[in-house]
Amino acid sequence: MDLLSGRLKLRHLVLVVAIAEHGSVLRAAEHLHLAQPAVTRSLREVETLLGVELFTRGPRGTVPTVFGEAFLEHARGVLAELRHAGERLTGLADAAVGTVTVGTLLAGSGVLLPRAIAALKRDRPGVTVVVREATFDFHVPRLLDGGTDLVVGRLNPIDDQPGLRQIGLCAEPVRLVARPGHPARTAERPTLAALLAHPWVLPLEQTSLRRELTAVFRAQGLGTPENLVECTSILTVCALVRETDMIAALPEHATATDPGVVPLPVELPGVHQEIGVTLPERRRLTPSAHLLLQHLRREAERYAEQYTASAVPGQGAGA
User: Fold this and answer.
1) For strand 55-58 and strand 61-64, is the pairing parallel, antiparallel, or unpaired?
2) pLDDT in the model for residue 15
3) What is the pLDDT of residue 258?
4) Same domain, residue pair 14 and 66
5) Is residue 41 part of a domain?
6) Helices (H), ranges, 62-221
């Protein structure tokens, strides 16, 4: 099948992606500011050209067929490459402007990313930074289709994602935390088993941190807390810990910046987070995204130096 004959147009790719994202021809037409008959006609054109049906209509709206899913993967990739080409040319012509879209995770972006963004904005005030917080599974398709430039946070396994690569930045311990006046603090040596009597707030099941915590529970013959809230917003987690008797597992930086969120003297063996960047394997970063990555690396070096200094107080004086 030759798709380079000139019959397949860029508007066909835009239209097919819009129908998939909006779930109906009508909503796609409204989004593209076109009449519905024109969208329907263009869809028939591309389906005739390809010789397959790309969408079916069902109870959930207009959904892609197996052929549609395959074509959409490539259509999104082509559109992403064209977007990035435009951004790269803009960046080369004027390094002071551009856009970088960053995905963040619950764990790992609370210190490095804000510092890196602040440094980037000092250097390039005209660069727009778009930050989207979600789970890693949510970010992966957007990394692959170009909707997101890079993801900052705890590094997740990518063995089943050959289109991605990762850059490690630093490591940070994870602590069990509770409010200062929590009832668990009355025990001389609280145990993980005893803490299960209290309510907990944990990350979602599909996160790496949740899987590691579950492994710690199982290693001690314990089940998952029964009184449980699942949350990926670090602001909400900290608020629940401050205002209730909930226990949470948070990166150490959260305990250093919030006096209402204090570590408990209960260890989490083997639970730490390697912070890094996940990005596409084959697509080059735009100038703005590359600049943000440079700032992330610099801030990671500074953070590692600060953490080492605070973890070993007085080391220089005693040398």
Assistant:
1) antiparallel
2) 94
3) 85
4) yes
5) yes
6) 66-93, 112-123, 136-145, 192-195, 208-219
**Count of structural domains, the chain:** 3
Residue recorded with tokens 């804000």:
114
What backbone phi and psi angles, to 5 degrees, belong to 237? -60, -50
Measured CA to CA, the distance from residue 242 to residue 253 in angstroms comes to 16
Between CA 45 and CA 47, with CA 46 as vertex, the angle to 5 degrees is: 95
CA gap 247, 230 in Å, rounded: 12
> Domain with 229 in it: what CATH number?
3.40.190.290
Q: Which stretches in the chain have pLDDT values below 50?
A: 312-319
Spatial distance between the Cα atoms of 262 and 176, rounded to a whole number of angstroms:
8
Return d(Cα 196, Cα 222) in angstroms, integer: 9
User: What is the domain range of residue 67?
Assistant: 10-75
pLDDT digits (tens, 9 = 90+) for 122-171: 988 989 999 998 888 889 988 988 889 999 988 888 988 888 999 999 88
pTM of the predicted protein model:
0.61
With residues binned 3-state (H G I as helix, E B as strand, rest as coil), the percentages for the chain, rounded to 5, are 45, 20, 30
